[in-house]
User: Fold this.
Amino acid sequence: RKEVEQDPGPFNVPEGATVAFNCTYSNSASQSFFWYRQDCRKEPKLLMSVYSSGNEDGRFTAQLNRASQYISLLIRDSKLSDSATYLCVVNIRSQDDYKLSFGAGTTVTVRA
Amino acid sequence: NAGVTQTPKFQVLKTGQSMTLQCAQDMNHEYMSWYRQDPGMGLRLIHYSVGAGITDQGEVPNGYNVSRSTTEDFPLRLLSAAPSQTSVYFCASSRGSGYNEQFFGPGTRLTVL
Assistant:
């Protein structure tokens, strides 16, 4: 089983719509969770960290469900510029240290 | 600050050739790492370093070597290129270790024929 799994999509939504997608992780001891954004043929960039209580950053809301081991990202009032691949990233314990494990990404396309 | 820089941006190699991918960061980050990204798969960790003189293997280290003689530089060497190493390679740096925000370079697109 993959450490981090995401629905690859694509999610095709009109401008102004709300889109939401999840990511599941297998290691119950994971401590930190992130969403990164990756534009086509570019490097990933941090979108937001995900906190236990859930958090918002403008039109983006991230939630963490430890019991079911998933995190979610919701985008409200979608803009054309939100078209990208969203990577779920989980901090996984590895021997004496932690490492980041990346999901394969969920592609979102916002159309005019 | 330039952040994380990588060279070259594109490279084509023949099977068996060797080469070095360069990575440098100017943020004084202790932690640096190399990932490869293949279609349908998440980024996979090749090697990482927690500081100058210290390196360790990641998830997919075979066929690659690294060294960290300075805080700024973290080159990745392909010893004898194979078609399976065709991929996009990202270098990243962060303060501390795996907990913190990773800053990625623009990537190197490598094709091995």
